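To: structure desk
From: M.T.
Subject: fold request, one chain
Message: Could you run this one when you get a chance? Sequence is below, nothing fancy, just the single chain.
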Amino acid sequence: MMLQETDGERLLVAVRRLLEAKGIASTAEIAERIAITDRASPGQGARMVARAWTDPDYRALMVEDGSKAAEMLGIPMRGMPPLGVLQNAPGLHHLVVCTLCSCYPRAVLGYPPYWFKSAGYRARAVRDPRGLIAEWGTVLPETTKVTVVDSTADYRWMVLPERPAGTEDWTETQLAAIVREGDMIGVTIPKRP
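Reply: Done. Structure tokens follow.
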């Protein structure tokens, strides 16, 4: 039995041919970008966080220019929107949301989780961020300011969470192992195992 090509598949082939014909992107460049995106995972962002926790100069670079900090660790950012990094601190907690769709820092965190794209998450993050993160087990002191930041097509955001107490003598590898995707979005905070 022969499978029929869908309209979407035919359109994708036509767009790729047009991009190549106009010299915008070759088939090889498109394949490379797809492969880079498919290899991306929260582990890459966790490596960035662990380095920032152990290297003050890297932390400063990460907060100043997240894209450059990612590139420094071998995470390709070419063709991606700029990466902003929001640093949590005592009394300040950031939560990332995309209120329109699912703009997400895929280069450093991989594909967005299903809940990040849901209308419920998007609405609750803006309307009741403290209540939303409490459902994830993140209960912050009332004195902690919760800031919601909108990730957009023009600028992607991730959170640099606070380093958990009692991890001062841990290696970067040990630290990266405790950083979860939710920690870098702001719904959770890293904890010692």
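Reply (cont.): The chain has two domains: 8-37, 41-184. Let me know if you need anything else for the meeting.
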